[in-house]
Amino acid sequence: MCLCGNYIFTLFQKECNPFSNFRSLYSNTLYETELEYQEVHREIVENCMKGDRQAQFELYRLYSKAMYNICLRMLRNDMDAEDLLQNSFVDIYGKINTFRFQSSIGAWIKRIVINNCINFLKKRRLEVVTLENQYDDRWDETEEESVDLPLKVKDIKYAISQLPDGYRMVFNLYTMEGYDHKEIAEILEVSEATSKSQYSRAKKKLREMLKCSGP
């Protein structure tokens, strides 16, 4: 699947809810259809609360693929992603009785997985550069140079995987997982301004890498 450079960089404009299309290239349709199966999933969750092994297996079957993809995007390593996925489901089963059905079970599971990814990266000294250390380029939406070259989804995914940890974390949380900057700031324990700045810098870095990947 090819996407022209102008289209990709248009997606980097915040005014157009930039990544509604971009997300669809990666997002599992599980989240889009979850409400249709809300009652089925509720029964599964309630059985998990009772310690039903079959229900636990079914919950894993429903969500493990999407959660693994999140882990892989965050961690960039197959083995780490698999280990963290398994550990996350241990946490999920252990905390399932705290779920109050005030949100979707998928969103609740995803938050646990993402928190575990962040904690894993923090142990490896994830660096989120603060505004005090660099110029403030929040939402630097100056006119962007057009890049007329074909881009493949795999090239975009590879470029994202090569971002520094802090940039990649914020970029993934905002574009792929649908969190806003206030939520990201709470998750990463940084200021909202730092989240916006990291996102802006991530976009700039991606543009540079995608230009270099052209013919």
Question: How are the secondary structure elements laid out?
Answer:
Elements lengths: L1 E3 H7 L8 H5 L5 H4 L4 H12 L3 H23 L2 H18 L9 H19 L26 E3 H9 L3 H12 L4 H8 L3 H21 L3
Antiparallel strand pairs: 1-2
Helix pairs in contact: 4-5, 5-6, 5-7, 6-7, 9-11, 10-11
The proportion of residues in beta strands is under 5%
End-to-end distance? 17 Å
Radius of gyration: 18 Å
Q: CATH homologous superfamily of the largest domain - what is it?
A: Winged helix-like DNA-binding domain superfamily/Winged helix DNA-binding domain
Question: Mean pLDDT, nearest integer?
Answer: 77
Widest sheet: strand ordering: 1-2
Which second-level CATH architecture of the largest domain applies?
Orthogonal Bundle
**What is the count of DSSP helices, taking H or I runs of 4+ residues?**
11
Could you name the ranges where pLDDT drops below 50 across 5 or more consecutive residues? Answer: 1-32, 129-148
Overall body shape: elongated
The overall number of domains is 2
Remind me, CATH topology of the largest domain? Answer: Arc Repressor Mutant, subunit A
How many beta-strand segments?
Answer: 2
Name the helix and strand elements from N-terminus to C-terminus, one letter apiece: EHHHHHHHEHHHH
Can you identify the CATH class of the largest domain?
Answer: Mainly Alpha
What does the model show?
The chain is mainly α. It starts with a strand and ends with a helix. The protein folds into 2 domains: 2-26 and 132-212, Winged helix-like DNA-binding domain superfamily/Winged helix DNA-binding domain (Arc Repressor Mutant, subunit A); 30-123, RNA polymerase sigma factor, region 2, helix turn helix motif (Rna Polymerase Sigma Factor, Chain: A), CATH 1.10.1740. The model is unreliable at 1-32 and 129-148 (pLDDT under 50). The longest helix is centred in the first third of the chain and has 23 residues, at 53-75. Helix 4 (38-49) crosses helix 5 (53-75) and helix 6 crosses helix 7. A two-stranded antiparallel ribbon has the order 1-2. The chain has helices at residues 5-11, 20-24, 30-33, 38-49, 53-75, 78-95, 105-123, 153-161, 165-176, 181-188, 192-212, and strands at residues 2-4, 150-152.
